[in-house]
Design brief:
The chain is of the alpha/beta class. It has helices at about 10-30, 35-50, 180-185, 205-220, 255-265, 300-310, 315-325, 375-390, 410-415, 440-455; strands spanning about 50-55, 65-70, 75-80, 90-95, 100-110, 115-120, 135-140, 150-155, 190-195, 230-235, 240, 245-250, 275-280, 325-330, 335, 355-360, 395, 420-425, 425, 435-440. The protein has a nine-stranded mixed β-sheet, with helices on both faces. A six-stranded antiparallel β-sheet has the order 8-7-10-5-6-9. Strands 11-12-20 form a three-stranded antiparallel β-sheet. Helix 1 (about 10-30) crosses helix 10, helix 2 (about 35-50) runs parallel beside helix 5 and helix 6 crosses helix 7 (about 315-325). The longest helix is centred in the N-terminal third of the chain and has 20 residues, at about 10-30.
Length: about 450
C-alpha cells in the first residue's frame, strides 16, 4: 500500500468508520491541552479497558494489563503477551507535550492600568503566530500545605479568554521592517489578564482586583504562583477542517495525534505473542530531558518492576536485555508537503496528506545529526507488516537537505540497542496554534500501530 491515497480505497462504510474514529480523537485532543490532562485522559481509557495500577499488584502473568504513572506527566501501559517479557516488547512511544507558553514564577505585573502575565515560551514556535488569538490557561497550583489546585480558564463558553496584543497596522511602520523572528520578541509575549481596578486601592489596583478573584475562586495567593505550572494554550475545541470535512484543525496534533492512535491501538489489541506497550512522554519539544522526558530512567525502571512482578530474579539486568530484544515505533508526526511552500520539500521524499502513516528512516539535521537512522533490516520487516495488514503507508524526510531539520525520541530508545523507526502522521502548520492533519492518515496510523503490536 506504498504511496496511495487512502480515501480512494474506502467504500462508504469504511469512510464512515474513519469519520467516527476522528470524532473520538477530536474529543481527546480538546480535553488534552497539557501533558497532565493527556495523562488524565489516558488513565480514564486505560482503567475503563481493565488496566490496573502496577503499584497495586503483587504479581503479573500473560494477559494482564498494567500501567505506571510518573509525576502525573508520563505514563506507560503494558498488555502482557504469551512470551516472557524479557523476550522483548512491541513498543509504541509518543510524546504528549506541545509548543506553548508558560507563566513565569513571578508572572503578574501592572502597567498603564493593565494587569499583564509574564511568560516564557516552550519549544519551537513562530512567536508572531501567538498574538491576537484567544488563549486559555491550564495547569496546577501547588500550595505549601501540600494541596494542589487545578487551574482552567478559557475553555468553557462562559469563561473569559486571555491573549497577547499586537501593534495596530496604522503604527507598525517600524515593526514591519523587522525580520519575522524579531517582529514579536519573546519578552513581549505577555498576556493581558485584566483592566478593572479594585475600588479603594491606589497602587496596583487592577492586579489586586484579579488577585481577589483568584482567591475567591481558587483559594490561591500570589506567592502560590511560584510553585505553579500554568500553561498558555490556544482556547477552543478541535474542529473539522475543509469543506469536505476530510481534515482536523486543532492545537497539539504534534504529538497527541500519535499519542491517541498509539493508546487506542493498545486498548483495542488482544493478547499478542509479545508484550504490547504504549509509553507517553513529556519534554520532547525541549530535548526529552528531565524526570518526565524520554531520557529519564522511568521507562527502564518500569520494565524492571514489570519483570519483578513476573518473577524475574535479576530485573535490572533483564530490563536492559528486554529493551535490546524489543521493537519500537517512535510514534511522532512528520512534516506534510504544503502546496503553498513546496519549495522546501523533496517531492520524492515528502509526506503527503491522506497517503497514510509516514515512516522516517532518519530525522536530524546537518548530515543526519541527532537522528536514529533505522536499520534497513528492521525497515524491511516493518514494510512487510504494513503491507500484510493493508495499511496505507509512505516514507518521508523532514524537508530538503540543509533546509532545516528536527528530532524525535527514536535515538534515545535506540541507545538501548533497540530496533526503532519513526512512524507517525503528517502535519501542516506544525508548531502553530492551529495545526492540521488528515482523518485518513489518523486512521491509517491507528491501523498500522495495531498491526505492529500483533506482529511476531
Amino acid at each position: 500500500m506504498y504511496r496511495k491515497n487512502a480515501w480512494k480505497k474506502y467504500d462508504a462504510s469504511k469512510e464512515k468508520e474513519v469519520m467516527k474514529f476522528a470524532e473520538g480523537y477530536m474529543s481527546f485532543l480538546s480535553e488534552s491541552k497539557t501533558e497532565r490532562l493527556a495523562v488524565k485522559e489516558a488513565l480514564k481509557r486505560l482503567e475503563a479497558a481493565g488496566y490496573v495500577d502496577a503499584s497495586k499488584v503483587k504479581s503479573a502473568k500473560s494477559g494482564d494489563k498494567l500501567y505506571f504513572v510518573n509525576k502525573n506527566k508520563n505514563i506507560c501501559a503494558f498488555h502482557l503477551g504469551r512470551r516472557n517479557v524479557s523476550d522483548g516488547l512491541r513498543i509504541l512511544g509518543a510524546h504528549i507535550d506541545s509548543p506553548r507558553m508558560d507563566l513565569k514564577e513571578h508572572p503578574l505585573y501592572e502597567k498603564n492600568e493593565f494587569l499583564l502575565g509574564d511568560t516564557h515560551y516552550y519549544g519551537g514556535i513562530k512567536k508572531y503566530q501567538w498574538v491576537t488569538i484567544p488563549l486559555a490557561l491550564h495547569g496546577v497550583v501547588c500550595k505549601k500545605d501540600g494541596t494542589s489546585v487545578e487551574f482552567n480558564v478559557g475553555e468553557d463558553e462562559k469563561d473569559p479568554v486571555v491573549g497577547i496584543s499586537d501593534l495596530l497596522i496604522h503604527l507598525s511602520a517600524d515593526q514591519l521592517t523587522k525580520p519575522a523572528a524579531k517582529v514579536i520578541e519573546g519578552e513581549n509575549l505577555d498576556l493581558t489578564l485584566g483592566n478593572k481596578p479594585l475600588k479603594g486601592e491606589e497602587k496596583n489596583a487592577v492586579k489586586e482586583n484579579v488577585l481577589k478573584l483568584l482567591k475567591k475562586k481558587y483559594g490561591i495567593e500570589e506567592e502560590d504562583l511560584v510553585s505553579a505550572e500554568i500553561e498558555v494554550v490556544p482556547a477552543g475545541k478541535a474542529r473539522d477542517y475543509g469543506l469536505d470535512k476530510s481534515m482536523i484543525a486543532g492545537y497539539g496534533h504534534d504529538d497527541r495525534c500519535c499519542a491517541y492512535t498509539s493508546l487506542v491501538a493498545l486498548l483495542d489489541s488482544d493478547v499478542a505473542e509479545y508484550t504490547s506497550c504504549c509509553i507517553l512522554v513529556d519534554k520532547e519539544e525541549i530535548g526529552s530531558v528531565g524526570a518526565t522526558g524520554a531520557q529519564s530512567r522511568f521507562f527502564e525502571n518500569a520494565i524492571a518492576k514489570l519483570l519483578e512482578l513476573t518473577g524475574e530474579k535479576d530485573p535490572l539486568w533483564k530490563a536492559r536485555l528486554t529493551m535490546e530484544n524489543s521493537k519500537m515505533l517512535s510514534s511522532d508526526v512528520s512534516a506534510a508537503l504544503d502546496p503553498l511552500y513546496s519549495g522546501v520539500s523533496d517531492p520524492n521524499n515528502s509526506a503527503y496528506f491522506a497517503y497514510g502513516i509516514v515512516f522516517n528512516k532518519y530525522t536530524g539535521s546537518r548530515g543526519k545529526s541527532g537522528s536514529n537512522d533505522a536499520n534497513p533490516e528492521y525497515y524491511a520487516w516493518i514494510r512487510k507488516v504494513m503491507d500484510e495488514a493493508e495499511v496505507s503507508w509512505q516514507n518521508a524526510e523532514l524537508g530538503k537537505v540543509d533546509q532545516g531539520g528536527g528530532g524525535t525520541i527514536a535515538y534515545i530508545l535506540g541507545n538501548y540497542n533497540m530496533n526503532v523507526i519513526d512512524a507517525g502522521i503528517p502535519v501542516l502548520n506544525m508548531h502553530a496554534p492551529m495545526e492540521i492533519i488528515s482523518k485518513a492518515d489518523l486512521f491509517e496510523a491507528y491501523k498500522g500501530y495495531v498491526a505492529f503490536l500483533k506482529a511476531e
